């Protein structure tokens, strides 16, 4: 078993689209972990003799696959990620050992020592994700921090991120100098363009950004965004 005393976990955002993930367990904890993986586009298989209503509904809709059986090492074949979320510590340990042997990333519910990664508590604002981890020390603290951050970050930041994504390629094309681009985006994020987007005035934000980009590309420097 891995030591509970270790350096901080490395924060990373994984692209799980189309990647196979296995969740072992059929209860509410397994359902919560499965929802997080499903939201990121993973191809999910649930391994458990019985599953809760929430998981059963996802199976009926064809969103996840269910193997109604006890876990065996072969259930991880082809998987890139595994989650052990049963209420049996022995079974969770077996899943963790199998994953470690197969060099598959594994998260074990309420057992950071056996986990090779932690599932963060996440605040989402469109494409913006703020992930919070206590390295498994206190999920309750992570949830409390998430609640505080959710109250501090308006939903409008999703519109701001989407605006930036929409114009990212155009800004690269028209401002080839990296320093000019950085100054342009800093001014956008700190000025009225960002305020318009966050407040829901997306048309005004778009028009202001286009005007600022026109001026910046002609002048070669970033003017005041108005």
Name the strands of the widest sheet in spatial order. 3-2-1-4-5
Largest sheet: 5 strands, parallel
User: What is the SS-derived class?
Assistant: alpha/beta
User: Taking all residues together, what is the mean pLDDT?
Assistant: 92
Total helices: the number is 8
CATH class of the largest domain: Alpha Beta
What can you see in these coordinates?
- With 226 residues, the protein is an alpha/beta fold.
- It has 3 domains: 119 residues, Rossmann fold (3-Layer(aba) Sandwich), CATH 3.40.50; 34 residues, Double Stranded RNA Binding Domain; 63 residues.
- Helix content is 46%, strand content 14%.
- It has 8 helices and 7 strands, in the order βαβαββαβββααααα.
- A 5-stranded parallel β-sheet has the order 3-2-1-4-5, sandwiched between helices. A two-stranded antiparallel ribbon has the order 6-7.
- Helix 3 links the parallel strand 4 and strand 5.
- The chain is elongated and about 65 Å long.
- The N and C termini lie far apart (59 Å).
- The C terminus is likely disordered.
In short:
By secondary structure, this protein is an alpha/beta fold. It is built from 8 helices and 7 strands; from the N terminus they run βαβαββαβββααααα.
Task: Break the fold down into its secondary structure elements and pairings.
Elements: E1 20-24, H1 28-39, E2 43-47, H2 53-60, E3 64-67, E4 81-84, H3 89-101, E5 105-108, E6 121-125, E7 128-132, H4 139-152, H5 157-174, H6 178-190, H7 192-198, H8 202-219
Parallel strand pairs: 1-2, 1-4, 2-3, 4-5
Antiparallel strand pairs: 6-7
